Amino acid sequence: MNRLLKFAIAAALAMGLAAPAHAANPNPETLKVALLPDENASELIKRNQPLKDYLEKELGKKVDLVVTTDYSSMIEAMRFGRIDIAYFGPLSYVLAKGKADIEPFAAMVSDGKPTYRSVVIANANANVNSLSDIKGKKVAFGDRASTSSHLIPKTLMAEAGVVNDRDYQQHFVGSHDAVAVNVANGNAEVGGLSEVIWKTLLERKLVDAGKVKVIAYSKEYPQYPWTMRSDLKPELKDKIRTTFVNLKDPAVLKNFKADGFAPITDNDYDVIRDMGKLLGIDFGAM
């Protein structure tokens, strides 16, 4: 009976998530702002308190910061109007755009560029010094819908002639920090994640630098997009866009390791769509 009750509750929750939203408010009193679920949720919300304070002051509305369990639930929540503003990775944005009526409006600028890189790391004792050495190894990725801890590293490997299933075993561990920890602990010999997060993990000494090394860097790709519901009130959308593009608050920028934010459009992410096609990724199945 206990198991049946648990099953019923899980089914009800799933139905609630999948149920269509009813006329989402175009001008909500409280804005639900979703952060990318690529690190520990409580830590993300704590670190983004300056962003919450800034948005509440500039937009004149209450703000609830949200961290979903994974990329898929974030996409579904955006799809059904349960999130108003969301910080997506490039790939998760492309996936969300195919399901939800959303639009990108800003991406951060770091070191004067609206782009970023991924890194491929290896356990220091795994005898892996280049991408070709990955053959026969276990490779850790973050989330299937992650750009910098899945799509980009996998593309780097494929370009080096190292292909999933044929040449290595892939494992999805959920987040960037989990990738680094699994490689450091030897649970996987190789992993892929964002260069920015990699550097942060080292700075905060969450990963022993002596146990892991970088074996490859990707080329530059468009930064993570901030997006919003397309059905929000036009005046509110303009205000949100302006609030981000004009953001100068040092506390907010420090957390993002950013110089500021620049306007973006959907076309900026066509390179991500093309990369997914080259890898034969079925966006609809993710």
From TrEMBL:
GO terms under biological process: transmembrane transport
Domain Solute-binding protein family 3/N-terminal, residue spans: 30-259
GO cellular component terms, A-Z: ATP-binding cassette (ABC) transporter complex
UniProt cross-references to SUPFAM superfamilies, sorted A to Z: Periplasmic binding protein-like II
Signal peptide (from-to): 1-23
Keyword Protease: no
Alphabetical keyword list: Signal
Domain of life: Bacteria
Family annotation (InterPro entries): PhnD (IPR005770), Solute-binding_3/MltF_N (IPR001638)
Keyword Signal: yes
PANTHER family in the record: PHOSPHONATES-BINDING PERIPLASMIC PROTEIN
Family named by the database record: Belongs to the phosphate/phosphite/phosphonate binding protein family.
Descriptive protein name: Phosphate/phosphite/phosphonate ABC transporter, periplasmic binding protein
Organism expressing this protein natively: Afipia broomeae ATCC 49717
